[in-house]
Design brief:
heterodimer; A: 409 residues; Spore Coat Polysaccharide Biosynthesis Protein SpsA, Chain A; 8-stranded parallel β-sheet; globular; B: 610 residues; Rossmann fold; 6-stranded antiparallel β-sheet
């Protein structure tokens, strides 16, 4: 008996990343760096746990296809499909031609970060329950920014897209890993939205679920990157310093750190983990890099600068005597010396998925600056909490950028 | 829930088929373990070996492994209808001994079918619903149908849920099967094929599987598989359905959830519903005993003790009966007190808790009557009791009790209401009204879980960094607080203590400092105002205050650092509606701290040593 025991996966990596602007003006969303890897790498790594026959990656940018083919072409039988029609519906439909009639498939969003185990467990649920489909779910309080599922008697009974918080009666978010029957293509071809198609599937077929109870991050907003960094970094089991890295004997390295090939840590720099320092990055004399900082490759942190809980994308230069906290800096940007980010969001400014913390008796939301790609921030500038600098902006020295998160509302 | 297995192989392909089936049944023991049996076809005859007890016990007596034959079916039982006994153990046969059947599920119309068959002259041996299947097949064979057609006709007659495996001497290499609403999976081998209720049963032999779907029927032989859809009559293309599994066997049983505990928390609506539906005349009898007794004692340990405290409260507040709940290991204190006019209520999920059993024996020796509340039919405590009211939560595998607590409380609430009715405090119509209200609880619990799961995860983020926490409540809130604290202690390893809120001023509050978490169980009862006072006390000391309350208490919610708002209910059902939230808090805190909630250190599911 010839056995049909493998399955195909469709990865959706064609989104424009509008909510991630200005970080995605020059870098496609799937290639945003998170603790030394591209966003898409996390998804494809998760898929390596499954017995896959073929992986179909739906993209809308040639740079993504080039990257995926080069990095993953030897590990999967890869097919790249270009998204022609917009939306998740268009993305799924473009993959249809690569599937056999009535073939069930794994569907993975290209912008989620979760332990690899989650992919395996979802697929196992599909195998062992023998039902038509499985949706991975994860509890999230910000229901208004996710798809939400209702479950009863081990079945998914209904899904809802971004419900109003006061109306939502479930907090189980659709977590971007599915096993779905072929029928979903037919429903999408009837011009149903993906949510409508899932609801129709819930009625005509039997959909079950897998509840993932550990952390899971959907990279939607810039600060989701910080959340992902924090989760990944705090799971470091130990420290790793590459043989090809150069750490000065006078530098202080404490806590769990990952220092990649070619990185250099200069005299008197203090690295206080958990921290990631990417390939060929340079941490200058007396600099202080601490908790949940992810310095991606080819970055320079100048002498006596401090970086904490921030994502520094590749090729960024942070000049001396700066403070970068709770911030995200897009690739190829230069921060002039003595630039300061402030990081306490004024009370009353509500930001989706940004959760207030209790700090010294006060409940505050912490978020620094969101700076795009190819910017130049003049020396001694001050960036207020929640300020946004669009890509390709040149700011004069002594600039002040005010809080403005309205574009994410 | 029960587990079934079937194996048919070419001679020599599997060295000892009966042994393979016995080992497979052991893998399914989580589905039930009160009786076990196998049937084989050997030299044109069916041999059945079965008996009451755990698999290894029955195996010691009957030696399953020594059974010849290459077509074998087996069953491990979790009794729901008909007590566990040698006779009620599966497999069941027909009149001629030419058919043997094992079944997991419930045949709803068995009474009617059984009567018809008895009229036709069939002789039944057991009280089970399952036995009608073998006689039905026999009946169709007598009418001249071929074995497979007879089987299909029989399946068409039965209503309910089932996974069935059946063998007949007429076609000794076939195992016939049918599936509806109970799981059944085929394991495909070279020269052999398996059937089982769950994948781990045969993973040692094969990783190629077909998960059968509802209304599918067919048979396996050592080299072939036939499946068809009963409704459409169409043959299923077997090849397209084969899947390969490559994972750790344990996962299949908890499919859909990372841990049994989370699964069991989510199973509560169903467990509550089944418990309520399963209650019968034993409630009336138990209520009579409670009313007749001079004094009522309640003995239990761990989570069941907290359910005991809830019962004490219910008896006091609903019919107004004085009772005394104690921790069963302290039973010797009552040696001079217990007498023949007393009643002991023994509460034990497993029915095997040694301390509770010892307490029960002490009271019995002194002539007291004993009622038990248990989840395992015919276990030691029910066997030694005068009367048992069963919860029908199904097997609970997570060491931390979840669904068994809420179902115990449900049974207690029904009992207390019944006592009130017998006593004349409630009119029969009022009693029925109350029971009708209870039937809405499962849905409410489902809504509470869905709505609060993410919030509990959020709170767990904070709690996971704490070393201490207090749980405070008043009245019925005290046992809820105690049970909530026990959950956190046992799986998240955080020091958690529960007190009546009024007691906190008499000592515990001395430990409270900035950021010390204090969780309040706020009920819509006469204590609400006092508990607000306790919240303010804790706030004044900069505690991190958490509260569970119902809608419409916004002014209290605003005072709290973290509030769970639950649907408004009569406060008496709060142990059922509030507890899932406390269970989820403990679960997510344990996961956040990196512990396995299913296997807490130093703890066993059933405590059978003093």
């Amino acid at each position: 008996m010839s056995l049909h025991s493998r399955i195909k996966a469709i990865v959706l990596a064609g989104g424009r990343g509008e909510r991630l602007q200005p970080l995605t003006t020059h870098t496609p969303k799937p290639l945003i760096r998170i603790v030394g890897k591209a966003l898409i790498d996390y998804v494809l790594e998760g898929l390596t746990t499954l017995p896959l026959e073929e992986v179909i990656v739906v993209v809308s940018d040639k740079r993504v296809s080039r990257y995926v083919i080069e990095k993953w072409g030897s590990k999967f039988l890869l097919t790249i499909a270009y998204q022609r029609k917009p939306g998740i519906e268009g993305a799924i439909l473009v993959a249809k031609e690569f599937l056999g009639r009535n073939e069930s498939f794994v569907l993975a969003y290209g912008d989620i970060i979760v332990d690899r185990e989650a992919y395996l467990r979802t697929y196992e649920t599909y195998l062992s329950k023998g039902l038509d489909g499985v949706i991975m779910l994860s509890p999230k309080i910000d229901v208004e920014s996710y798809g939400i599922a209702y479950v009863s008697e081990e079945k998914v009974s209904k899904v809802e897209e971004k419900p109003l918080p006061q109306r939502a009666r479930s907090t189980l978010a659709i977590a971007g890993v599915f096993v779905l029957p072929y029928t979903v293509f037919e429903y999408l071809e009837e011009n149903l939205s993906f949510t409508e198609a899932l609801n129709k599937l819930a009625m005509t077929k039997t959909l079950t679920y897998y509840i993932w109870s550990k952390w899971w991050v959907d990279i939607g907003y810039p600060w989701d990157i910080l959340e992902a960094n924090k989760n990944i970094l705090s799971e470091f089991k130990g420290s790793y310093i590459s043989d090809k890295a150069h750490v000065s004997s006078k530098a202080i390295v404490e806590g769990k750190v990952y220092i990649d090939n070619g990185a250099e840590i200069d005299h008197n720099a203090i690295i206080k983990g958990p921290v990631y320092i990417g390939k060929n990055s340079f941490i200058g004399a007396g600099a202080f890099v601490r908790k949940y900082a992810s310095i991606e490759e080819e970055v320079i942190v100048g002498a006596y600068s401090e970086v904490k809980n921030s994502s520094i994308q590749p090729n960024v230069t942070i000049s001396s005597f700066s403070f970068i906290g709770d911030s995200i800096i897009g690739s190829n940007t230069t921060i002039g010396p003595r630039t300061i980010t402030l990081n306490i969001v004024p009370s009353g400014v509500k930001v989706s998925r940004l959760h207030p913390l209790k700090v010294k008796d006060k409940v505050v939301s912490k978020l620094g600056a969101i700076i795009g790609c190819n910017c130049y921030i003049g020396a001694s500038s001050v960036l207020y909490a929640g300020s946004v600098v669009e890509s390709d902006t040149k700011l004069k020295p002594f600039s002040v950028v005010e809080t403005n998160l309205s574009k994410y509302a | 829930m029960c587990g079934i297995v079937g194996l048919t192989c070419l001679p020599g392909k599997i060295v000892n088929p009966a042994r393979a089936v016995r080992k497979s049944l052991e893998k399914l023991e989580y589905r039930g373990y009160d009786s076990v049996g196998i049937a084989v076809i050997f030299n044109g005859k069916i041999i059945i070996k079965k008996g009451k007890g755990k698999i290894h016990e029955v195996h010691l007596k009957l030696n399953f492994d020594g059974t010849p034959g290459s077509t074998v079916i087996g069953h491990t039982r979790w009794a729901t209808h008909g007590a566990p006994s040698d006779v009620n153990a599966h497999p069941h046969s027909d009149c001629l001994g030419a058919i043997a059947v094992v079944h997991n599920g419930i045949i709803k119309n068995f009474d009617e079918l059984r009567r018809e068959l008895i009229m036709k002259g069939h002789v039944f041996h057991s009280d089970t619903d399952t036995e009608v299947v073998s006689h039905l097949v026999e009946d169709y064979i007598r009418k001249g149908l071929k074995p497979y057609d007879a089987f299909k006709e029989a399946i068409k007659k039965i209503k309910g849920s089932y996974a069935i495996a059946l063998i007949m001497t007429y076609e000794p290499n076939k195992i016939f099967f049918a599936k509806k609403d109970s799981p059944l999976i085929i394991g495909l081998g070279e020269g052999f094929n398996f059937l089982a209720s769950d994948i781990p049963a045969f993973l040692e032999y094969t990783r190629k599987i077909i998960v059968l779907r509802d209304n599918e029927v067919g048979y396996i032989t050592p080299t072939n598989i036939i499946i068809e859809d009963m409704v459409t009559g169409e043959k299923v293309n077997v090849r397209t359905r084969v899947r390969t599994v490559n994972w750790t066997p344990e996962m299949a049983a908890k499919a859909g959830y990372p841990h049994f505990m989370l699964k069991e928390i989510h199973e509560q609506p169903r467990a509550l519903n089944e418990t309520l539906l399963g209650l019968g005349m034993e409630v009336d009898k138990a209520a009579e005993l409670i009313l007749k007794a001079d004094r009522v004692f309640i003995a239990a340990a761990g989570t069941s003790y907290h359910a005991g405290l809830v019962f004490e409260y219910y008896l006091a507040k609903i019919p107004g009966i004085m009772s005394h709940a104690f921790i069963s290991s302290e039973y010797s204190k009552y040696s001079k007190i217990a007498n023949s006019n007393d009643l002991l209520v023994a509460i034990s999920q497993s029915g095997e808790t040694i301390d509770t059993l010892m307490a029960l024996r002490l009271f019995k020796e002194n002539g007291a009557k004993v009622i038990s509340i248990s989840n395992v039919i015919d276990s030691a405590i029910p066997r030694e009791s005068d009367l048992t009211v069963y919860t029908r939560a199904g097997p609970e595998i997570g060491v931390a009790a979840t669904k068994t607590f809420t179902t115990q409380v449900l049974v207690e609430l029904v009992l207390a209401l019944k006592v009130a009715e017998l006593k004349g405090d409630l009119l029969p119509s009022e009693y029925s009204e109350e029971i009708a209200k209870l039937s809405k609880i499962p849905k409410t619990v489902e809504e509470i879980i869905l709505k609060n799961e993410a919030l509990t995860l959020q709170l767990a983020d904070t709690l996971s960094y704490k070393n201490n926490i207090y749980y405070l409540g008043r009245g019925l809130g005290v046992p809820i607080a105690k049970e909530g604290a026990l959950k956190l202690k046992e799986i998240a390893y955080i020091h958690a203590e529960a007190y009546p809120a009024g007691e906190s001023k008499h000592g515990p509050i001395a430990l409270v400092e900035k950021g010390f978490p204090v969780l309040f169980v706020v009920l819509d009862d006469e204590n609400k105002e006092s508990i607000v006072g306790n919240i303010m006390e804790m706030k004044a000391r900069d505690a991190y205050t958490i509260g569970l309350l119902t809608y419409g208490n916004d002014e209290i919610a605003e005072k709290l650092d973290f509030a769970f708002t639950l649907p408004q209910q009569e406060y008496l059902v709060a142990p059922i509606t509030y507890m899932p939230v406390l269970q989820l808090i403990a679960y997510y805190t344990a996961v956040k701290r990196g512990y396995d909630p299913d296997k807490p250190r130093n703890l066993a599911k059933t405590v059978t040593v003093e």
